[in-house]
Amino acid sequence: MTDLAQRLHADADAAHALADWCARTLNSAPTAFDGEREIALRLGAHAGDGRATFGFWTPELLDHRVPDGDVFLEVLSPCEPLDLTRAHQEVDFHRAYMPVARYEAHTFAVIDGMIAGTREQVGDFYALVWRDAAGEWHRILDPLAMSLPFGAFAPAELYDVGAMQAARRDLAYYADLAADAADGAPHKFTPPTNILQIHVPTATAGGTLAALTRQFERLADRFAADLPLEPSDQLYLGYDAVQLLPVEPTTVYETGPAFWQEAPHSTERATISLTRPDTTNWGYDVVIAGMATVNPVLLESGRPDELVDFAAALHNFPKKRKMLILDVVFGHSDNQGLGALNPHFFAGPNMYGQNLDYRNPAVRAILLEMQRRKVNFGADGVRVDGAQDFKWYDPATQTMRHDDDYLHLMADVPQQVAATPFRPWFVFEDGRPWPQEDWELSSNYRAVIENMADNDPDVFQWGPLTFAHNTPFIYGFWLSKYWRIREMMDVGSNWISGTANHDTLRRGTQVSPKLNINTRLGDTRMDILDKAYDNPAVSMLTYAAFPGVPMDFLNATSRASWGFIRNQDDRYGVKVVAEEAISLKWQVDEYSYSVPQNFRRLKEIGFETRDDLLRFFEFLPALVEVTEYDLNVIPDLLNSVEPKLAGPAYFTAQELKHIARAWMDDMHEYCNVSNSVSGLDPVQTGYMFELRKFRRANPWLRGNLGPKDHFDYLRPIDGRTVFACLRHAPDGRQTFCIAHMEGGETGDFDPLTLPIPGLEGFGWSLRLRAPSIGPDYEGGPITLRDSMALLFERDPARA
Question: Among the four residues 137, 162, 261, 659, which has the most C-beta atoms within 10 Å?
Fold first, then answer.
């Protein structure tokens, strides 16, 4: 008997008691969903007091008619202490198979003696296994695992979540929430004033949650000490909330290597090849399995505690605590999810991969339980990606219907941290009837808001200027969007506003430079793109005029690059890069490419200069299209180009895949915000910081325009688009902003003499001016040019 077998003890009576409880719950619940939701609380692994309990939803065991005697809980324990910070290692594990108890599609086990992982130690790993009639072993992974050091396609680590929560450094934050709650009711989070959106891997040089935590802790120390703020400090400050792009486990390399590789099962010992997960991804290519925990790629230590630490850094921020918002993706699964979950999770393919079967009571309950456990890491708000994709097929009408009931359930999931019950603030991205062809015209971006108005008046959606297809650097954009902007002014109080986010900036880099580009934004394409998404006039409107909650994307405000970053593809990787190739023209100039640390992989392949790569990228998209992406033909056509293309000596399908991987890896490094810090303009970052402080000092601006407020563009157009907005605060104060969005200059005029009701009279003072307006301007006549903006204030009580 091995040391592991001696250490472990299966409590068969306790496991059978769980199976009996499962039977009673399912048989007595009002509905199957009610029963499954109660059972979902017991699924996954739970550790405490030396005992571990396990629950799995296992309909595949019924599908395969697997008898009880062939189902076990597999426990794997490293023979020596395991270092999760190593890139690669060969590790010997002890293995033990422990008995389970079953009731229909649910399987349970109770084991004494297992080691639970903590911040200080790595715990035992586990999975459910079954043996077929031929003696072959099959694993069932835990989709509700709380620690996945080697990703969602490997055995999970038993983790002491209770110890992690007890050691939180923000317990006082939750005690204050509990004290503020009325009559013991759950604390309800309300909307923040503004949001900073962050992609963890490109937000710091370290690229991990731990590195990001250190960044905010450093800022907190400097801010508390009233030290001077550098431009790189200002990027992160002045926000009420931080929203992380998804931090769930994502897809893995399609053709390997796997992060957990082992020889066929033996009974007592296994040598396993372990690789620290190192994929790059923008966050939305999820496999649903593992959604309750953290992507190990983002963990410097391999410990999920890093997400708790980051939440605490925000919650403890001096002078004004910050909210943490998590972005969750439950509207689809990548096709790789088919290898991590049983088939009953899925309802069929879609454009992203697979639809989820929201009508299956167990699936519905498990998804909600995943969400609950994830938010309990310390999130105060939740952004739901692609809510229009939550659908189910109605056989009566033979149509797909939006599952608004499920969206209601998402917003009502009870949360509790440090014995404090609370309800997060919810934001839904919902552009229905997308993907209908006329969605940009027909979507009102208010379907979820209207459906939930009676239940939760604080529910938000992404507004029309925040959705993907916005290109503010094309002439005519702002006037063409005026009707949407008018909607924002009238009904936008529950919208997220701002034109720069992970989606809009990505779409901007895919626009053909041959279109009618607003060259007044800059001398180069890089300058144009940077200024379009970090624009003083747009920001003035967003923060001083528009209702709702403004959101900025760190890669935009830092003027770092961004794109569709995913290096796991093998089958379609070359096609994806062909679609992204145009971003080279927008985001990389000759100098940037020549910097030694930039694009080092592509240079090693043979693309020594930007022109070398640009010429290759002129051919690749065209050949992908004309051959309908035939990787057997494309290399031959590339090899026949004269003069010969730079790159490998001879193009093959494998070489093209190598180039695609190099592009993705190089772009991921190039997009890191740390690369842009030295080039920040302190005048621009200071202006943006002051705008954010102005909005936070005037939270009433979140409301829709009132009867005395004014918003319009200056008439006649005369070759330019200039917006003017007058707003009235509840206490009688007024704010007036004017923003030149595009086109020629205005000629000399005094903005405060425009024929706008309520603007007349004295007492106005200049509050903010765009960086391109000199500091000597304090009011009076001025000629406005592209991207110029002014903000005035008046207090009638002092006039």
Answer: 659
